[in-house]
Here is the input.
Amino acid sequence: MNTPAIPTNDPELAPPPTGWIAHESCALPGPAATAALAQVVAELLRPGDSVLLQGQLGAGKSHFARAVIRALLGPDGQNTDIPSPSFTLVQSYDTPLAEVWHADLYRLSDPYEVIELGLDLAMEQAICLIEWPDRIAPDWPATAACLRLETPPQTPEMRIATLIALPGCELARRLAPAMVRP
Ligand SMILES: Nc1ncnc2c1ncn2[C@@H]1O[C@H](COP(=O)(O)OP(=O)(O)OP(=O)(O)O)[C@@H](O)[C@H]1O
Ligand SMILES: [Mg+2]
Here is the structure.
């Protein structure tokens, strides 16, 4: 398996918790490429999976999450409004495969709120897409996979996506083929 170093071209972005390692990386030249990656990821997800979306403001976390949710909603997804969970912290969707929780922890005031929101329980049976997991670091769920989105300097539309997880993470192993972009 290709094991690139954790990217360091964004010094503002916190490193993942100790022990989490980079598994695969790919370049996403524009928003359409990020949505295409999301569609492939959606096909590989199963109930109980959590994907942590790490990246700066405007990195494309919500863009990625919306494309996953649309893909999981199926034909109805194209016409479904998928609001940002910035203020509500979580939005949930019923999809044929599983309930999907879209969370944005940016405004989390206390890590305990994750329990109040029911997100810890949702992680056991729903598919959870969680923006700003930095707010609950270093307590990232051990079975989750993190997709880190970085913008290389002077390339506003380019993102480098890196799959980060604990060694042996089953979800990361399942998602790794999605990172091989055409
Ligand atoms: N390669 C790319 N992938 C994803 N989004 C891109 C890309 N290039 C440009 N963009 C643009 O960047 C913006 C990303 O916005 P988005 O709301 O998804 O960011 P975010 O990471 O969720 O930010 P926040 O931390 O504020 O929630 C969108 O306007 C999108 O069109
Ligand atoms: Mg967002």
